[in-house]
Amino acid sequence: MTDNEANNCPSTETTPEMWQQGQIVEVTITDLNDTGEGVGRLGSRVVFVSDTVSGDRVLVRLVRVKPNYAVGKLYQLLEKSPHRIRPQCIVADKCGGCQWQHIDYDYQQLAKQNLVVQALTRIGGFSSLPIAPILVSQSALAYRNKATYPLKRSTTGQVQAGYYQKGSHQLVNLNQCPVQDTRLNPLLAQIKQDIQKRGWSLYDERRHQGKLRHLSLRVGRRSGEILLTLVSTNWNLVDLEVQAQEWVREYPQLVGVCINLQPDRTNIIFGSETRCIAGQPYLREEFAGIEFQLKPDTFFQINTEVAEALLKAIARELKLNGKELLVDAYCGIGTFTLPLAKQVRQVIGLEVQSGAVAQAQINAQINGITNVTFQEGTVENLLPQLGIVPDIVLLDPPRQGCDRAVIDTLLSILPKRIVYVSCKPATLARDLKLLCQTGNYDLIHLQAADFFPQTPHLESVAFLYQGIGCSIPNSPE
Fold this sequence. Notes:
This protein is of the alpha/beta class. The protein contains ten helices and 22 strands. The chain has an eight-stranded mixed beta sheet with strand order 6-21-22-20-19-16-17-18, with helices on both faces.
């Protein structure tokens, strides 16, 4: 900072009484939280600052102030952390797609492992955690097998696709993205040009007018097949069939072009109906020795290789002998269900989405797997109706965790083992505490997995066994 800048800079001296929006304070970052922000302290109070990392000494402008904490914006980097690196992406400081490109990958892994430990200690009340080293990506870049971009028109009328700027709905235009599979990059710039050439209208979310909303690209990491989907408020895009055929001819790996209808005023990307315009409405992918069909809106883990590593870790820990009855709750299209079915006597998959159940059944047929059945409905309704005591229940709920009725049912039927896969440490910790504090289950193994390099998100899996006598959370005060 120059002398003039220093003279114009508001004072950074702080007393317990000073705590005002707009104030600039000096903070040393000591931790990272689960939303990706750096965490520092100002006296007894906490300050959260994005674009920082543990070890940074920074000046921070306070933008939101509460009695015990504040949210700040990085004003000046006074001293760099040894974990700080130059981002690989030229728009990393603007784009909201990645929060941690400024952090070296080794420290990202350490931070994520720590997020799991902190959640289970502070929220779950566990005093001893049998946690294994985190499973990591072979590459911290080019790992994503799917990318879905909002579409907008610039002030000069050019078609743009990208991610929203941090904390806003300002689109950061991209022609390539370093975290997506590199085979998707050549399509992005060309498809924007073709949309421009066709003159198709783009959706304006403020006015709820226009047609094209999103461009979705999906690739089979093993098959190399690509699926392109346009999300629109309207089926009627002039010469869409002609353009779709051109795309299929131009890109040999492109096996299908689809359009998805989303007419609602919502931030939910996909609507309920999809039509195939050219080629086929799915791509083929191999996962853990199983062939899957993936449609435009199919949920499938974004990091194929680390998902396989996590599945192997689950099978290794369970030491399956082929005699087990396994219930896979929240089973989706059978991503984990079908590989595990080859190693047990019988599997029952539970899934609320009818489309996913239909795909799971097709995937089972394709692979000749006959010892699995899929049931449609919520886990909280279906699990009590099964009338069985499974040897193993595999849970893989959404970010909000399990419905309390699911926890209560598990505690009433008492399966021998519970495997809980989670994408949010806080809800994992909450649910594990409920399952273990009764004394029926012990947490005997914990495994984190980095499905999402360059972001604070991660997956983890916890193994609960009956009556082992290990970690039991502290009783609530």
